[in-house]
Backbone:
């Protein structure tokens, strides 16, 4: 009898992974009280800038990196749409 290999789900690591997890938390909290399909920028910056003690410029840099990787979309002048 052959045993199937079980692969562990990918767990985000490092700064970018934690940043993405915070965005997912913000996304789930937004879904509770809003019909918007994106996280507004003030909520994004409140969640990540305070949590990591970084400035908006650094947060933008990480947002662009995550966008380039394909984990999120930046909705023009509105917010961030996170791909789950």
Residues:
């Amino acid at each position: 009898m052959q045993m199937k290999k079980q692969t562990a789900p990918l767990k985000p690591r490092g700064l970018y992974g934690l940043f993405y997890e915070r965005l997912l938390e913000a996304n789930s909290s937004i879904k509770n009280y809003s019909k918007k399909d994106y996280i507004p920028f003030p909520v994004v910056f409140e969640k990540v800038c305070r949590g990591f003690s970084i400035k908006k410029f650094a947060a933008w840099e990480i947002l662009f990196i995550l966008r380039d990787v394909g984990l999120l979309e930046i909705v023009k002048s509105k917010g961030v749409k996170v791909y789950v």
